[in-house]
Write a structure and sequence with these properties.
single chain, mainly beta, twelve-stranded antiparallel sheet, about 15% helix, about 40% strand
Length: about 240
Amino acid sequence: MSAELHLPDLPEVRIEVPSPFAGARPGELAPLPPRAGGPRRPPWGVRLREALSSYLPLLLMLVLALGTWWLVRNTPLPGPPAGPAGVRSEPDYEMRGFAIERFAPDGRLLLRIEGGRLRHFPDTDRIEIDEARIRGFAADGRTTVATARRVVGSGDGSELQLVGGAEVTATDASGAPIWIRSEFLHLFLLTERVRTHLPVQVRWAGTEATAAGLDYDHGARLLELAGPMRAVLVPQVRR
């Protein structure tokens, strides 16, 4: 027994399968479709630029911190506070072929110092004079003259040390001359005194003496000689 089944006619449906070579130029292969399982990773150059841009602020902060640390480490420490500037021991001025005069408040001439060369030292306010000649004038008109190869004294000239061939010539209140010579004489002009601890020669009122030292007060007319001493006394003739 046989039977036949007749199906109605169905419309024709066109089915298209995309070709892997679609869209490719003649002689070229079409690009492969993306792989399944996730997006494609960017090239390493792109990834490097992205990493640098992400870590650049951190790197800059690290470099700045290292630079600050190096600067602090190599900066010299401040020294101790500087004290006042010391006074120089060298002369601050010199004069040659000079003459210095000192006057009293009433205008009277008290002292005149001449010499070949003068140096002033500010640390002790002292003066040094080569080939000095000194003239002191008392209130009563008496004059004292002193000479030496070298003189060391105070800045105002009130105290002088005569060194080398020192001589002092003066007159006392009665007008009698007095002459003193030694290799060292200490002259005090304000108090009119002369001292020395070295051998000295003295001539006064016709008397000549040599001694180991001297202390002479010109105002009081007092002369003290230290021994050993030798003197030649000339008797005064009474009329």
